[in-house]
Amino acid sequence: MLKVGKTKFMTVVLFCGQLLVNLMLIAYRVDFSYTQMSVLAITETVIDIIVLKTICSFPAVSIPNIFAFFSLMFHCGQLIKEGFNIEGTVPLPFEYYGDAMTIQKSFTFFLLSQTVYFIAVGISCGKLQKEKKVNQRQADVSVYGKILVLIGVIPRLYIDILSLVGARANGYEGVYSIYFPQAIQSIAFFFDAGLFFLLYAQTDRRKQKFYLVAVIVYKCIMMSTGARQDKVAFLLVWLYVYFFIINKITVKKLALLVVVCIAGFMFISAIGTIRVNDTVSLSQTLSLLQSGTMNNVIGGALGEFGSAFDTLEVAIKYTPSEIPFGWGKSYVAGLLSIIPLLVNQIPSLAKAVMFVNQLPKHVTFALGGSFLGELFYNFSWFGIIGSSVVGAFITKLHNGIVDDSSCDIFYKAWYSILATAMILFVRGYFTDMMQKLVWTYIAIYIIRMYLAKRETGKDIK
């Protein structure tokens, strides 16, 4: 215990030292060039991951590090592209959304938030779950999965089939123009949640491989509509669970995983290329990959994925000059969104759900979310502290997934479900995940009550 305490102390001291250096650079009003921003963002993130690995023995491939990597790519992707003069298209150029001062402030907010995030990870890493949990039998965990999949399969197919039809008819515009009530999306999420329970409950290696491949194929088919974010977040955790939790990683499996990730990156980039067309389909995506005409793949990916920086920019530029600070309203709205249509009845909260909807009419935008942009909108520069909450929470999820002390696969499955939502949160809004997660938890609790009655004939106390 003493050794663990010392290593954590050393880690936090190093991260705090990094934070102090960043604050000194900001205090001296250093104007970073795009190249300096790129080098600083990449170097500090890599160093932080190495520090966690060498001092705390925290695995380099972990849920918190995946989150940090995606935060880097989504918030600094375009900066990296410009800083290193990488060729590629940029659908939403960050320079359109803010002047030089806004860009400097936005990068500063990211840099400090990333450091504070890693401080929280360093404090929380290795801190296993202390609460006593009731181990669920493998067969019971399978029941959770089967019931959740059964409830969610019809809404899931309804959404996915209409998305495929819309993409086939009118391209990506035909997908995002389709309105699906949040309640239907939440119930459809049961299907995805159930898949994790089924994967964890399966002991037959052949069936595990079948689940792995079948789900990857299905999600890739659905990504071919142009809508990728939730599928990518799901598959990241899906692959992590299969290769690092359920199965022990080996050199051969690691090589296979690298190949899968490279192929996946090419596939995702191809979708980004063709989704500007009038029609979008899997056959078009595969044809583009086979043609070998995908130029500037890395630059195009950085240009497209890095648009979360745009959302952070508009938050800093227009709050509070045009948009009043939320002071936590978007998070309250997210909590209340578990009750359908309730938030719409409260105008002040309805406006805060997606703060970009409050932007002045003259601002042309087609922006996704950014957890950093939402933090600034709510709490100004104090929002940097919110990154520590995110870091501590996602590290708790990771600890629960990798903890073999209890072998409680029920909690491993539940934490994996939460992890998919958190990774999507990098590029989303708080309200996006709340109804889905709370409704899923309620469904799981009802199933648990059913299993308890079946086992003992008594309610859970």
**Structural class of the secondary elements?**
mainly alpha
Give the tally of β-strands. 0
Order of helices and strands: HHHHHHHHHHHHHHHHHHH
Percent helix range:
over 70%
Question: Please, could you describe this protein's structure?
Answer:
The chain has about 450 residues and is an all-alpha fold. Helix content is about 70%, strand content about 0%. The chain has helices spanning about 1-25, 35-55, 65-85, 100-125, 140-170, 175, 180-200, 205-225, 230-245, 250-275, 280-290, 295-305, 310-320, 330-335, 345-350, 370-380, 385-400, 410-425, 430-455. The mean pLDDT is about 85.
Which structural traits does this protein have?
single chain; 461 residues; mainly alpha; 19 helices; globular
Question: Layout of helices and strands, plus pairs?
Answer:
Elements (H helix, E strand, L loop, with lengths): L1 H26 L6 H23 L6 H21 L16 H25 L13 H33 L2 H4 L5 H20 L3 H19 L5 H18 L4 H24 L7 H10 L5 H9 L2 H11 L10 H8 L10 H6 L18 H9 L3 H20 L6 H17 L4 H27 L5
Short description:
With 461 residues, the chain is mainly α. 72% of the residues lie in helices and 0% in strands.
